[in-house]
Amino acid sequence: MQNSVHLVGKKAGFFFLLPAIVLISVFLIFPAIWVLYIGMTNETLTGIHAANPEFVGLKNFLRIFNDKFFYNALRISLLFVFGSAIIGQAGLGMTLSLITYRKSAKFKSFVQSVAILAWIIPEVVVAYLWVAYLDKDFGTLNSLLNWLGFGKVNWFYDYPVLSIILFNTWRGTAFSMLLFSAALETIPPSYLEAADVMSTSTWRKFKDIILPNIKSYIFTDLILITLWTFNVFSPYLLTHGGPSFKTELLPIYIYRNAFRYFKIGYGSAISTVVLLINLALALIYLRLSRRSSK
Amino acid sequence: MKHIRRKLTFLEISRYIVLIPIIAFFLAPIFWIIVTPFSIRPSLAITLGKPTLSNFYRVFQNKIALLAFRNSLLISGGTVILVTVVALFSSYVLSRKKFKGRDLLLYVLILFSSVVTGVAAMVPLFMLNLKMGLIDSQLGVILTMSGGLLPTSIFILKDFIDSISITYEEAALVDGSTPLQVMFRIFLPLSSRGVIVIAMLTFVNSWSNFLIPFILLRSNTQYPISVAIYSFFTEVGVPDIGMISAYSLLYTLPVIIVYLIVEKKFGFSFYGGLKA
After folding, report:
1. B112 touches chain A (CB under 8 A)
2. pLDDT for A159-172, tens place per residue?
3. Which residue of A has its CA nearest to B259?
4. b/e map of B123-154 (b: 16 or more CB within 10 Å)?
């Protein structure tokens, strides 16, 4: 009887769910599990192992631990995440959200839309923007520096990691800014009004009122942007991993192995490592968000 | 009082001293794309001069450019329709039915959708499409992108449907409407805001995606804009900056328009964080 006043019955409910389950299973869950298996073969895209890949067990995974290019990529990825996500995006996002906090809606939406613009432009276009911006001879940045009396800087060649860190900070700050702005709105206004009356210093207000109230949001933000930044591919469009592997992030290293050298098996093994790091970060995130929703 | 006011102005000034360089940092790289498409001698430098439309004219003369526009529309359109319809049906059930294992299903969904990114899974996604004969086909791109975008869309829509009271549907059913009538006359209009949000989100994401079509497509007649943009060279083999910049601007416009609509209708906070 209960079901008769429902729009869909049990059977129909199952068929409503089915397309989503099939699509997600085939194109999201299966690849993540299959990659473990491919990572244990010596499959290639061309040559003898393309048709008949052999099972090689953990050989690829053991090779990773002696691969100096893997360590190079891991080191650059860590630098990239630390510099562009944790320092750059979270730092700048916090600064912007504090600058617009308790200000007029107009001011806030102007400041926010500037950062959001950098966030929504398609990544290919963003890559062209930054190639033009940082160009040694014609780039806008060097023209500005020149105008201020500084010499030309060959950004991509002399400061490759800094270049992609600046790029990704510019690209992704909007998310942290929006999240922190939303977090600041959850602080009861009376807290800060009381502090205003007592003319508490700005620093004390930040340290004693703002920070403790938005701490959980900051953790959530740091985990999410770490996860996302770790999985960013766009620096490839700026530098192709160069010069001489100096900006080769883990995703670019996977790409090079699988699609430039056609080593599908080895590329899958590195993918597995990246997926495991993602899994660890996602589990921390889910635990955090569960705790805060309780 | 005087003391407080002086302190406030000092704070105001330092606020702008911090803000102005940040605004400049965000805007400086963008000027190039506003100026260069209209430049007679387009280069990586920002050159002002008499504006021209010749770069756009050349874009519309280029076969690959036009084909890529059509391909992008096909891929994004296909992905939007597939994701929206599939998400609508499944999130309806996930919201309205309390069945065994539902929470586990939701947990698995959110976990896999954050772990399995296109970047981390590019090798198995390529192999999967290869084995299914979907390499160099837009269907493969659509299905692969849909699989990645579905979980987020389902979550947003489920949250949205949770907020619509079930009493409307029940009342209409008790009144003797058929389930189909209730679906189209009552439920769909009520949930249209949520559907629009996920449709726009899916559009922006699939329109901008570079990696998936880059690894799954082979021939330049299949490429969407994000990949085809790398095929514009001048007769001497250097990138054709004029065409690239004009094409980039045209490519960016739909995304900006969607943003403005979302901003106007919902406020961006609703959209914030939803970019997968």
Report:
1. yes
2. 999 999 999 999 99
3. A120
4. bbbbbbbeeeebbebbebbbbbbbbbbbbbbb
